[in-house]
Amino acid sequence: MLASRVSTVQPLHSTDPMAHSLTLTLFPATTSSFRLRHSVAYAVKPLTLRSVTRRLTLSPVRACDTSQQMGGNGSKQRKGLIWVQPILKFARSNVLPLALVGAVALGLACPSLGCAADKYNVSKIGPFGIFVISGLMLRSEEVSAAVEAWPVGLFGLVSILFLSPYFSRIILQIQLQPQEFITGLAIFSCMPTTLSSGVALTQLAGGNSALALAMTVISNMLGILIVPLSITKFVADGVGVTLPTKQLFKSLVLTILIPLILGKVLRESFKGVADFVDRNRKLFSFISALFLSLVPWIQVSRSRPLLLMVKPRVFLVAIGLGTLLHLTLLVFNSIAVRSISVITGGRKSIFSQEENASALVLVASQKTLPVMVAVIEPLQGAFGESGLLVLPCVAAHLNQIIMDSFLVNFMRPRDNSNDAKVV
């Protein structure tokens, strides 16, 4: 016969003051007279207040649960927002590439709109608006801060305006039909640096943004005088065309210098204008990108019949040549700045400072599209169909921004959280 014994109730090691365990054990009454071959043990699972309340806990009712019961509309809207947010973030970070690609696509899909805009000289509004905005966003203290690194800036200007145009001679040796693709890239290599992409990328890389801005402004202003001469020497002789230098100089002054001065005067004359522009720099960058997209839109719309006659393989070759041009300029400027730093004092040289070197390499290796368009417009077909001249340069402009965006990821300091936008 088995007898039972109730053990004492002992508290569990728990933070719950109400948690207790109750253990019942069965054992033989007389162990001497009765031995079991197999011992029997019965275990009762501890019963706690926590285990009971855990089963009785009710899940909170959410609004989306109700909507799911009513058809799932709320869940679908929520999933839709999850997909839209990354797209909007990508669009805000890549305004210029998307604007240029969209302009080319619109020109190819619906050329009638671009041709109608061309009749009202809308293409001239784009470059004028871009340089007005550049003057409005130009801070005087940023330009003066670059004085300390003037030797680096001086070499950058030499590389942009005097050395890189020599690559056009090499480009013109390539045989490709239509020849306008090659001529356009050769003209593109004679251009000054980009208006804002180089500065924004320099900020992201943690470089000397004031030096980058100074090289950008000065190269574009000096480019009004030097670009016509460079095209005449390196491109026009190669294609047997006499360039109307006076007409081109007048066009550059009206399209670049005057609007740039106008924007800067407005900024310095009215304190409210400067404050408003500084608070809304992203908005003005977006407007500048839209102005820039007007040019390829009209050019592609006007030249659509010719563009459709171009074989895709030929256009891919032209894109590859534009990419190769930018890679060549990156390698050339990188080797040049390292060599000059060794000659001028090694680590103590101002060229060896990473912030100055990154500013020079990024800015001096890029070429601007608006000045390219301002150069082609007054030529009136002297070098061929303007749309065919511009199209490979649009691709080259996009490629250099995309390539340098990846390059900046390797140049950027780990603690740099600058959120500058590339435009």
Automatic annotation (TrEMBL):
<comment type="similarity">
    <text>Belongs to the bile acid:sodium symporter (BASS) (TC 2.A.28) family.</text>
</comment>
<dbReference type="InterPro" id="IPR016833">
    <property type="entry name" value="Put_Na-Bile_cotransptr"/>
</dbReference>
<keyword id="KW-0809">Transit peptide</keyword>
<dbReference type="Pfam" id="PF13593">
    <property type="entry name" value="SBF_like"/>
</dbReference>
<keyword id="KW-0150">Chloroplast</keyword>
<feature type="transmembrane region" description="Helical">
    <location>
        <begin position="210"/>
        <end position="231"/>
    </location>
</feature>
<dbReference type="GO" id="GO:0009941">
    <property type="term" value="C:chloroplast envelope"/>
</dbReference>
<dbReference type="GO" id="GO:0016020">
    <property type="term" value="C:membrane"/>
</dbReference>
<protein>
    <recommendedName>
        <fullName>Probable sodium/metabolite cotransporter BASS4, chloroplastic</fullName>
    </recommendedName>
</protein>
<keyword id="KW-0472">Membrane</keyword>
<keyword id="KW-0813">Transport</keyword>
<keyword id="KW-1133">Transmembrane helix</keyword>
<feature type="transmembrane region" description="Helical">
    <location>
        <begin position="283"/>
        <end position="302"/>
    </location>
</feature>
<feature type="transmembrane region" description="Helical">
    <location>
        <begin position="95"/>
        <end position="114"/>
    </location>
</feature>
<feature type="transmembrane region" description="Helical">
    <location>
        <begin position="243"/>
        <end position="262"/>
    </location>
</feature>
<keyword id="KW-0812">Transmembrane</keyword>
<comment type="function">
    <text>May function as sodium-coupled metabolite transporter across the chloroplast envelope.</text>
</comment>
<keyword id="KW-0934">Plastid</keyword>
<dbReference type="InterPro" id="IPR038770">
    <property type="entry name" value="Na+/solute_symporter_sf"/>
</dbReference>
<feature type="transmembrane region" description="Helical">
    <location>
        <begin position="150"/>
        <end position="169"/>
    </location>
</feature>
<feature type="transmembrane region" description="Helical">
    <location>
        <begin position="314"/>
        <end position="336"/>
    </location>
</feature>
